[in-house]
Amino acid sequence: MTPPLAGNSSAGISPRALTVNYFLLSGGELLSKLAAFFAFTRLGRVLGAARYGSIEFAIALIVLFSWPVAFGLEEYGSREIARRRHAGLPNQLALAYEIALLRLLLAFTSLAVLACVIWMLPRSAEDKQLLAAYGASLLLLPYLTHWFFQGCDDMAWSGLLSILRNSTFAVLVLVFFNVNRPLYHVGIYECAAVAVTALAGFWGLHRRFRTGIASPRISVRLHLWPHLSAAAPIGFATLSAIALWYLPTLILGLRAEPRVLGEFGVAHRITISLHTFVWLYFVNLLPSLTRAAHDRRGLRELLAASLTLSTWGALLVALLGVVAAGPLIDRSYGAGFHGAVPVLATLIVIIPIMMISGHYRYSLVAAGQQKWLMRWSLLAAGVTLITALLASRAGSMGGASAILAGGLVQLVLTYRSVRRHVVDLPFWRPLARPCLAFCVAVGLHLLLAPFSPVAAAVVSPAAFLLALWIFERRRLLQGIALLGRSRQERAA
Fold first, then answer.
1. How far apart are CA 312 and CA 310, in angstroms?
2. Is CB count within 10 Å lower at the N or C end of the chain?
3. CA-to-CA distance for 359 and 354, rounded, in angstroms?
4. Which portions of the chain are predicted below pLDDT 50?
5. pLDDT recorded at residue 18
6. How many CA atoms lie within 13 A of 172 on its CB side?
7. What's 215's DSSP letter?
8. How far apart (Å, rounded) are the C-alpha atoms in residues 329 and 345?
């Protein structure tokens, strides 16, 4: 992905700082996702498509039940920490304590409901044990502190915690898991990874601030309820995002063959791992959007520059996904998962869709217009659910189509709300060139692939990169010069 750019001082942070923060977060997530990738390819090869589907079903269900534990409080907390930067450290730490306590109360509630769902689900005993082991991690999630570091613009620590969590999980899987181990051991590994990450976060806070909160007194009405109310619109929008991404997995798990679920799970896991970088892009950009929200001209410039370059990056990722889907699946998971190839080549298109819509979604959050994001996201989730149910007979391709349908609906509706309530921003002007280049590159791939797959794999991305250089050469050179000047200033 392309690093976010800011073109004005109203954003409150320099373009270089945004770029460095993004690469710190992205570098951490890249290492983190590589660790997770090795772990899940190991699980896929050991278990096979049918049994591997049980793990993907369990993760989808636990992600759904982790929503009440988060409930938008991480994004809300990160935003409030950024706003309280000059209010003093005790004020920031008090906020962190209040949010952690609130999330712990929500975790106990969510776990109780999950226990009832596990008891009622028509799954095997082994699957239920796996769900219970994963469910225990809900009680550990409130102790994660990455959102606090993000609010402080300390992306190095946020990235480090991400690396630690997935690396711990990967090491446990690679060292201890084999075909004779029960599935619930995977859930235990996840609990251990979350616990290690929480402890590291506490150590990081102590090392950085070397202070604490003296005898905090928490009132549900005065302290916790206002946080819950303020975070609720973000929380419900997050629920819709979870529904958009994970409802197709749950529906396939209940209505399709285990092998189909395993194949869809592989394509879905690769795609959502790449989507993490989209999410990180906006986590990094949100503080600047918040500070620029009341300057329409500055916000328009920030969004226009970011939309153009980030769309090029997202479409390049989608193009590489289309081109490399076959070799990636076959060499990583084995021939038993070859049915996931067309699913990945289709589902990967959601990456540029979410990158574009993310500018509108996070602009609504930054401007305090979360209610519109909540409404349209819930509607998009409904579209995803209906499409997944209607298309379930198409198997894994039906699940991919459901995610794409929900993403497109969310993009259109959030853009309309941004134009009406935040800033008047043209739709096609920043997107036309990268989208045209993508269509030409995909057309070249489809034309050449039947005759020479190797030529298609080379010519298609090369044509896209050539278009990027022709259309955006000036901005790319400006970005390189900006980083170069910063290095020279540091050396001086």
1. 5
2. C
3. 9
4. 2, 4-12, 486-492
5. 57
6. 18
7. S
8. 11
